[in-house]
Amino acid sequence: MNKKDKGTVSYVSDNDKLYVMQKKKILNTKKWLLILMVLAVILLPLAESLLIKSLDLKKQEVIVEYVEKGDVDYKVYLKQNNYYKEKYLGEGMEYVANIINTINPDFRYEIHATDNLDMSYAYKITATLLISKDSDSQPLYTRTFDLIKKDVKVVNSNNLTISENLIIDYDEYNSLVNRYKKDFGISAYSKLVINMDINIVGKHSNNEDQMFINRTLQASIPLSEQTIRISIDTEEINNNGLLFAKGKITVSNILLFVVALVSLGLVLLLLITSIRLYIKFKRRNIYYITLNKYINEYDKLVINGSYENTNIDETKFDNVVKIEKFEELVDAAENLSLPILFYEVIPGELSFFVVTNDKTLYKYTLDKAALTKKEKDEK
To answer: Could you write out the DSSP letters of every residue in 177-218?
Structure first.
């Protein structure tokens, strides 16, 4: 407690109902907050219902089905020899390397759709020579040869076929590997990997949904071996696909649509108003919450000083003791068997709680500014 603080301090407000009015302000704010939120909750589903009824939603539907297929096969053409009468051997065999003339891989890819599509496509075929210590090792040497490159073409059709038949001079690549092995004096594993890379974009004229396809067909030819087995490294392509017509939303009832928009606007306005009211209430809340706490918890001790016509003049007391904690003022009131007089000097900002006897005034000040500063400091 601090001792003696003399001076002229105004305690009295002209309005005897000041405390009652401030309490109502809290209740009224909460009441309006509740009313606004209830209105928003009621109005929102109504606005949503009107909006849904005013719109016509067309669901997604399939407009095109398509099938894509792709595979690789080959023929092995032979040099003149005393054992094979055929000009070439078919796929799936093992071949004697030194009688191979050319290897002719045939790459084929196609799309078949239920309706015409605008399709832009491009593709290229490359041959990559790989030399490594063994089949599982990292390459010692690689070299890529561009065999075919087709720029973008555009077609409008329900069928697209890409077919390329190559002639691979086996001796050319085989000789390159043999020279490499001879120059470096090593034994090595080698193969020629042939890739066909295809890129397609398809679109139906009545819809924005697009088809994006990237496919690779691959075959591998071993080199520098006595006998070889050609492998098709890509599984046969056989896929199905769909293009959808996207759903559309149109306004089917203008009047309902306008009413729905107005209702949504009112909901937004109610929410904004509620938020602003809550922020305003929260800013003032710390003072009113503290004030109501003291009044409600100690209602038997606290009386409205203005209402009781109890006028205070601090200069008439020998001691004016400032109380730091309200509980200390309660102790003083109970020890002296006296009431606590309440004066709200500045509504919403400043109140005094006092206990008086003949010579001493015990005073507790409820100051909104001090409460706000304390709250900020504690954060």
So the answer is: HHHHHHHHT---EEEEEEEEEEEEEEE-TT---EEEEEEEEE
Tell me the pLDDT tens digit for each residue of 60-97: 566 788 999 999 999 999 999 999 999 999 999 999 99
Q: Which of 108, 121, 136 is nearest to 199 (CA)?
A: 121
| Helix/strand/coil for 56 | strand
CB 301 within 8 A of CB 32: no
Whether 179 and 270 map to the same domain: the answer is no
Could you write out the DSSP letters of every residue in 211-247? EEEEEEEEEEEE-S-SEE--EE-SPPEEEEEEEEEPP
Query: What's the rounded Cα separation, in Å, for the pair 98 and 119?
Result: 44
On whether residue 275 sits in a domain, the answer given is: yes
C-alpha 132/C-alpha 224 separation (Å) is: 12
More confident residue, 117 or 310: 117
Query: Which residues form the domain of 297?
Result: 18-47+256-378
In a domain, 335, yes or no: yes
Does residue 273 belong to any structural domain of this protein? yes
The total of structural domains in the chain comes to 2
Q: Could you tell me if residue 187 is inside a domain? A: yes
pLDDT tens figures, 196-211 = 999 999 988 877 778 8
pLDDT (average), residues 106-113 = 95
The DSSP output letter for 14 is S
Determine the distance from the C-alpha atom of residue 35 to the mean position of all C-alpha atoms in its chain, rounded to a whole number: 34
Write down how long the chain is: 379
